[in-house]
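Figure caption, in words: inputs first, then the predicted bound structure.
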Amino acid sequence: MELKQPAFLPTNRQEMRALGWEVLDVLLVTGDAYVDHPSFGAALLGRLLVARGLRTGIVAQPRWTTPDDVSRMGRPRLFAGVTAGALDSMLAHYTAFRKKRHDDAYTPGGRAGARPNRAVIVYSNLVRQAFPGLVVVLGGIEASLRRITHYDFWSNSLRRSILLDAKADLLVWGMGEVPLVAAARTMLQAEKAGLEPDLTGIPGTAWMGGPEQVPEGQAVIELPSHESLLEDPRLLMQATLASEHHVQRGDVWALQPVSGRTLVLAPPPPPPTSRQLDEVFELPFSRRAHPGYSEAIPAEEMMRWSVNTHRGCGGGCSFCSLALHQGRRVASRSRASVLREVRSLTRMEGWSGSISDVGGPSANMWGARCTLDPSRCTRTSCLFPGVCPGFQVDQSAGVELLREVARQEGVRHVRVASGLRHDLALQDPRALKALTMEFTGGQLKVAPEHISERVLRGMRKPAREVFERFLEEFRRHSEAAGKEQYVIPYLISAFPGCTDQDMRELADWLRRRGWTPRQVQCFIPTPGTVATAMYFTGLDPEGNPIHVARSDAERLRQHGILCPERGRKPIRGEGPVRGPKPQPGGEPGPAGKSGKDRKPQRPDKPDAGREPLRGGAAERARKPDRAGKPKKGRSPERSGRPDRDPRAAERPPGPRRAPDSAKPQAPGRPSGSRPPSGQARKGGRKPPR
Ligand code: SF4
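Bound structure (iron/sulfur cluster present):
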């Protein structure tokens, strides 16, 4: 059935009726506010499902004390898709020291508290309460990274697949377009035939089944069972590396026994072609928050005039969730499609002439491809320890694309706010020169992350010399352009394998250059990554023991080596460590004062274990115990249940929503109500890792 794309997907009965929809085919429940922009997963998938003829509605940030929000548009015909939003809800809510965050870029007013802890589990429960027997499909970063047994930093324990805890029917891991549409088609066909839908075997999904569901002749990765991982936590490294391999190979199945059953993971779908990506990004997004919101949503403001050119990152940094979610294979939009999107921006209300960012997970990977056979690849990164000869990218073509964007009528200014992969940038001096001279808006974000050889190896990041060479080139080109420009280096403290000595080495290096660090993050073990397995097991990927700073005291001490004022007296609050303003050409200088350079993170890029430092006596008191042994006492979260509904006790003043009122409503929550975390930094993405 052909469906007209609505101005916004419906969020209540009244909006459904206005579209002439009596019933929904698919209901999407999300932990983010509803912003109709391709960087917001639920909005993008909703529009795609409508384009495929499926009447799709969105409930954003529903109350979790009652199923009323989830049920307000009635039972959908096919299924409910559930996501925590752009970030894992625990990461969104808690700092590196398990303190509650106070803001959330994906919520009106930027306030914390609009979604529950472990939102995927809580929302699934709500859906089952509202619509018993309805198929529930999990997706988004929280479900994706928790698809097999994983270490959960916030409860300091190994948890089984979230599919089981959410009691859902299917888990979509990775990018959702192909699996979600395939699941919907399967259900439609089953409905026509009057049969129960068989949702097994869809690429990019996981379900509870059995080994017999793997088609004959297909390669299978046998992951250690959940129970064996509980018995021998060191197996987590093996399981995590195997999971990485599962994503990279692209043609293998994976099985994990758990609780007497078997978790089956189909191979991922092939990366989207340019044509497929073009279609998705050119759906008629309004690029605005739903009109029911009365307060600004920080992420909307940050993303509105940005253009996404590609997905995926070949970097494979050990702490980055991206490789496990989007994959290492880069999928790029066509030049024509990017330009069409830019022209459409210039016709939109509120257009000021500036594009805040043109890029993807990394600024300089548009058009990158593997010229070898990625399914036979045994490397864990296309760029580490050196750039693989099979990794081909024409960075000059990327610069030419930027120039074309800048030449479009109505465009006055184009910035590249996505981070640059500096080792790759050195491979094309002409492109680096052009980027530095023409498209760097005074500050360039780069993520060396550390300086110590040993730590960099654990991170799968380029060596110090590579970063130093890059700085020299950047300085040279900035001077040649007569521009005062700075490098903003992102750094991580307390990374697994990092000792006080390594931090001192980094501090000395910075001191010798006259730099005071401004973007230092204490490592957070996010679910599913190799770095998290290192943190938990105390082993490197080769199985060698490493030092791990686990206690808050040691983590703070490592941090304090770079940022002495924080190390002496931990300071609560958001924001990167602030310090001297950089000097031209990459040399930071005298002390800065504001948080002006705090850049909200792009919602399409998951946080990769970095976060602004917070600390305090309470944080120190809540030390994690030894690996695998949950600490007794109060944890930030218990059994998937939210601590409380913040709206009950702390509802701020402001209008409350009346369901199905005549006025357009904020999709899923009263305008002016309050939500969680401030993951974001203003303006643009963090550098690629
Ligand atoms: S062969 Fe090289 S370019 Fe291709 S996936 Fe492997 S590391 Fe990346």
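The pocket of iron/sulfur cluster is lined by residues 314, 370, 372, 374, 377, 379, 382, 388, 390-391 (CB under 6 Å).
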